[in-house]
Amino acid sequence: MAKNHPKRKGQKITQEQLRELGSKLVARHRNFYVYVIFGFLAAVINIACFLLLHNIWKMPVIYANTIAFIISNLASFSFNKHGVFIQNVDKKHGVVYQICLFFIYRVISLVPDNLIMLVGISWLNWNAFFVKIIDQILVGIFNYLTTKSIFLNTSGKFAKKFKDYFNKKLTKKAP
Asked: Where does the pLDDT of residue 13 fall: very low under 50, low under 70, confident under 90, or very high at 90 and above?
């Protein structure tokens, strides 16, 4: 058995092996951890903008949420481009392509974002701050998955898998 791998049942793992495993785990999921930090910052921007626009300036929910969405996503694009996805980056596509794709994906997330806010605040009469936090958590998960595909060299792989999946479906239905 290799020296650096944990031993079989009943044998102890050394501190060195544990540290090595921890280092590999952090390195492997670096983008996710950094995204969580910057995602939290973007969510704070979103929440602060929304509360300012809705609670202080008395703007309707949908307008306040959409403006907060735009402001926080401009910040989020910059965070992701320059701070999160800096390894294995897609160098084939320029900033204009990336920002367009980024906002196409994010506009898709604006629909459930606005729905959550509308239902939570207008229909259920919940506290705006509470609803916005729930909203940011749910939308943040979707945004991580789509954002990852924009900046990393994997966007072509996702598109190919998507195309292959539908080609298989179409060939199965063909007579």
From this structure: confident
Q: Are 114 and 62 in contact (CB under 8 A)?
A: yes
Residue at 67 is within a domain: yes
Summarize the confidence of residues 92-99 as an average pLDDT: 73
CA Rg, the chain, in Å?
21
pLDDT (tens digit per residue) in 133-149: 999 999 988 887 777 67
Residue 6 φ/ψ, nearest 5 degrees: -60, 150
- The one-letter code for the residue type at 13 is I
Coil vs helix vs strand at 101? helix
Which stretches within 52-91 are classed as H helix? Answer: 61-79
Quick check: helix, strand or coil at residue 10? coil
Pair 71, 51: CB distance under 8 Å? no
Three-state DSSP class for 158?
helix
Would you state the torsion angle of the CA atoms of residues 137, 48, 74, 86, taken in this order, to the nearest 10 degrees? -60
> Does the residue 3 lie in any domain?
no
Q: Which domain holds residue 35?
A: 31-156
State whether residue 89 is helix, strand or coil.
strand
17 part of a folded domain:
no
Q: Which residue type sits at 138?
A: L
Q: How many residues are present in the chain?
A: 175
Per 3-state DSSP, the chain is made up of helix, strand and coil in percentages (nearest 5) of 80, 0, 20
